[in-house]
Amino acid sequence: MTTPTSATSALPSRTFTNVSDEGAVPGEDTSVVTKLFQERLQAWKHAVGYIEDYVTVTEKTHHAHGKEYEKVLKTVSHSLKEGHHFDQSLGGVAGMFENIRSNTQGISNAHYDTAKQLKGSILPIFERLHTEIKNKTKELTKGAGKGSKAVDKARNVTQRHIELLGQHTATFDSTGGKMTAIDDPYVLQRGVRYRLNKQIQEENNNRQDLISVQNSFAQFEAHVIQTIQHGMGQFMQVVNTQAEQTKAMYGDMVGVTQRIPLDFEWNGFIQRNNTILIDPSAPARSITDIHFSNQDHRATKPLISGSLERKGKIMRSYDTNYYVVTPSKFLHEYKTDDDFAKDPVPEMSLYLPDCIVGGCNGAKFNVKGKDVSKGKLGNSFSMSHELQFKAHTPAAASQWWEIIRQAAGQVTGEAPESSAPTSPATGKENSPAAASPVSTKDERQPAPLQTQGITKETAASPTSATPATTSATTSRPTPISAAPASGVEGEPGKY
């Protein structure tokens, strides 16, 4: 900082004129300089007061920021929900939040510390300067201000004696010089000089005091500015330290977050849940490798299974399907043996103990019964049907017939026709040809299975399936048109 220049060389000089009567008592106000300095001190005092207010409000603001950051800290003060999904070691998300908590607490503490330093260290600097300005004002009032009053008093005394001298000099001319000794103009003139000299001494003394005040004001203002500079420097250091700490803490938060490896949490998650997660290297599940309860129970093993041909009811042509005889004595019909394409629900199910089985003729055999695949309700309204089956070979047919015969409720000796299927026009039993006498060719063929009039009681008879009793049933059946009415709904006699 440069040294202030001298007040005596910087300010214009003032001289008092005392060579004439008009100049003996100047008309200027001697306290104008003092008032000017008092006003300047007041300006400095207000300027320093502004700085005090600024520091005070800044201190309160930092204290309030400390409280606000405590509210910010509360947003992350609780442990993470589902925190077991995050690695609790440093370097992960849990460590990142711990770092955020500690740095946020540090920011709050930094604001509190800044507020304390501003109030305890910075604000007193300006408060002391404010007090010095006040003391300087008192000093000016008691020093130069008192001298100005003395000058005014001396000037008033001189002015009265000058006026008295003028009064008696006028009387001297009018009275011809006759007057008292006290009123002698000579005496009064010397008295004026005496008081004028005293006035000038007071004026000179006051002048020296004002010069001293001017010189001291230059130094005092330099001191004021230096103090303000020092205080603001300390203020900047305090708030800058807080700002740098806040910047560093925020930088640390971001740095910790950016240093988390992209696969850190995932690898930890895999390690913590390796017994639950799927092993990519493990082979895929296969139904052939799976075992479940009662998978190999004897009731699940078919007695026989395979493809058979069954004659249709309308077109009278054979369709190939997949059939199974189960230990539960059911004959189930499926479209295929595929268990995976769709739900393997039987297309038809015959409960063999309620069925009647005819004889086996080559690759053909007949079974009569109700379709029970729809449950009890469907069973109540279903009709009995004569189903004609054909195996691929006579041996296979014999095997199928034997297993079905053992499970069936009744077995007759009636064998199915062995000839090829007739046309729809000639194959109907209710046609005129069916009522005509049987040709020689028909006599060579076995008669169709006759199940009309056979009751369940006869099916339960132990002798119904023996060869000895089949002779009565193997005779030529009565034509269907002459047969008694059947108790089964449908078209009896159509096999």
TrEMBL record:
Signal peptide: none annotated. Coiled coil: none annotated. Residues 1-15, 458-486 have a biased composition (Low complexity). Pfam families: BAR_4, PH_20. Keywords: Phosphoprotein. Residues 419-429 have a biased composition (Polar residues). Residues 302-411 form the PH domain. Gene3D superfamilies: Arfaptin homology (AH) domain/BAR domain (1.20.1270.60), Pleckstrin-homology domain (PH domain)/Phosphotyrosine-binding domain (PTB) (2.30.29.30). Residues 1-24, 409-495 are annotated as: Disordered. This is PH domain-containing protein. It comes from Zopfia rhizophila CBS 207.26.
